[in-house]
């Protein structure tokens, strides 16, 4: 030990009372709490009684006890002279922080320690003062120590009884809480069961409504297909008859009649375009369109569209088609892809009075991004989703005077989805629009 405070010599079992008293005094002097004082004193008392008691073999003849302070702990060392008693020593692990036993043929050394509370650092001056006080105090008689021990025992029993009463009170409160929890659980279980029945009924109603919507959608699709098919022949006939009337080899028409024939031809052409759009949309919705997957060179598609769409441009609008850098292959349906891009180019030209309509493609990882950008009137953000609804048209008249059916963009989006991609728009009023077609390079059929 680095700093010893008290040394005791134990020769008889009665000296154990003195050791117990000294242990309590030293513990109190260095700042241990009362319960820790009692624990340390009890541990030393148990060791002393064990060493000096004949338990089927010879007991120790004498023992020395040192009390000291080291490394923030109160240290107690007991050196017993006599036969080995280590196997008889009780388990004191709950009473002290550290316990070691060195057992030899003629001596048994027991070392134990208890931590001093934080902030209880002991200076040399205080240690000297503690030594002086301990040396000046006379040990009490075994009877007085026994009385003190009994008082401590009564105090411990009183604390135990108080803890027991407190525990009983807590158990009663816990039981009451458990009853409340069980009642609440039963109530919530009933409400949950009732809610579940309502959810089941709601799902059943939703399933029924979904079936009705599917039936209505299928009926609408059949209606559009049938009506479109039936209207195409008479409308085509009207256009043919109007062309015959306007033929230079036919009987000449007056100026007024020629104008009326042109109106008939224009209206019939618009009607035929609407019929064709309806028929295409009906095919897409019914699932009858099956892509013809093949390896397609985007440069060829762009070249074809550059030639066919350029005829629609006016002097104030320039059509710019930028060929993608080779290799520009994609697995898709060439006819359907060309139809989508043609639709987007027509749409851009229709809403652009001056500037340009540009189409370009870039590779983005496993996808191709094909963008059609115009410098037209633009679309408000709140209408970005609505323009892909059937028959919806942005309010206001196209600056070029062209008319539409409101079916081109919905049909284009369905075709892009059918090809395994997506069609999105970015636009704002006065800043033009950019339609982006994202398609997988490997194609929607999952082959490479």
Automatic annotation (TrEMBL):
Under the heading Pfam families, the entry gives:
HATPase_c, HisKA
Which Gene3D superfamilies would you find in this protein's record? 1.10.287.130, Histidine kinase-like ATPase, C-terminal domain
Cellular location(s): Cell membrane
Main localization is membrane
Q: Where are the coiled-coil regions?
A: 143-187
Keywords from UniProt, A to Z, are: Coiled coil, Kinase, Phosphoprotein, Transferase, Two-component regulatory system
Question: From what superkingdom does this record's organism come?
Answer: Bacteria
Q: Which reaction is catalysed here?
A: ATP + protein L-histidine = ADP + protein N-phospho-L-histidine
List the signal peptide residues: none
Domain Histidine kinase residues, every copy: 226-443
EC number(s) per entry: 2.7.13.3
Q: Which GO terms describe its molecular function?
A: kinase activity
PANTHER family in alphabetical order: HISTIDINE KINASE, TWO-COMPONENT HISTIDINE KINASE
Protein name according to UniProt: histidine kinase
Q: Which organism is it from?
A: Asanoa iriomotensis
């Amino acid at each position: 030990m680095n700093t010893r405070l008290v040394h005791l010599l134990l020769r008889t079992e009665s000296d154990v009372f003195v050791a117990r008293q000294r242990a309590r005094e030293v513990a109190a002097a260095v700042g241990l709490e009362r319960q820790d004082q009692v624990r340390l004193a009890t541990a030393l008392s148990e060791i002393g009684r064990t060493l000096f008691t004949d338990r089927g073999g010879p007991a120790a003849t004498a023992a020395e006890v040192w009390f000291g302070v080291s490394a923030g702990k109160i240290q107690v060392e007991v050196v017993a002279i006599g036969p080995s008693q280590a196997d008889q020593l009780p388990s004191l692990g709950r009473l002290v922080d550290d316990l070691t036993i060195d057992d030899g043929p003629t001596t048994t050394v027991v070392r134990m320690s208890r931590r001093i509370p934080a902030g209880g650092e002991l200076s040399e001056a205080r240690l000297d003062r503690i030594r002086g006080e301990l040396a000046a105090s006379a040990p009490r008689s075994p009877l007085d120590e026994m009385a003190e021990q009994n008082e401590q025992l009564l105090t411990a029993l009183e604390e135990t009884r108080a803890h027991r009463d407190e525990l009983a009170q807590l158990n009663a409160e816990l039981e009451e809480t458990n009853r409340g929890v069980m009642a609440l659980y039963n109530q919530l279980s009933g409400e949950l069961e009732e809610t579940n029945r309502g959810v089941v009924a709601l799902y059943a109603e939703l399933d029924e409504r979904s079936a009705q919507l599917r039936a209505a959608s299928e009926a609408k699709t059949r209606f559009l297909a049938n009506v479109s098919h039936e209207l195409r022949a008479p409308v085509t006939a009207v256009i043919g008859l109007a062309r015959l009337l306007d033929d230079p080899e036919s009987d000449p028409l007056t100026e007024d009649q020629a104008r009326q024939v042109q109106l008939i031809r224009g209206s019939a052409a618009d009607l035929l375009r609407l019929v064709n759009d309806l028929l295409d949309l009906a095919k897409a919705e019914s699932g009858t369109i099956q892509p013809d997957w093949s390896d397609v060179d985007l440069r060829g598609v762009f070249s074809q569209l550059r030639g066919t769409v350029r005829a629609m441009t006016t002097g104030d609008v320039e059509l710019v088609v930028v060929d993608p850098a080779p290799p520009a292959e994609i697995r898709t349906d060439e006819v359907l892809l060309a139809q989508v891009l043609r639709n987007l180019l027509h749409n851009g030209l229709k809403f652009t009075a001056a500037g340009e309509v540009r189409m370009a493609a870039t590779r983005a990882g496993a996808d191709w991004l094909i963008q059609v950008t115009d410098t037209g009137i633009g679309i408000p953000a709140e209408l970005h989703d609505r323009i892909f609804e059937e028959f919806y048209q942005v309010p206001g008249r196209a600056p070029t005077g062209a008319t539409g059916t409101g079916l081109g963009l919905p049909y284009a989006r369905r075709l892009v989805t059918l090809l395994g991609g997506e069609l999105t728009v970015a636009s704002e009023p006065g800043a033009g629009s950019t339609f982006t077609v994202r398609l997988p390079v490997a194609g929607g059929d999952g082959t490479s």
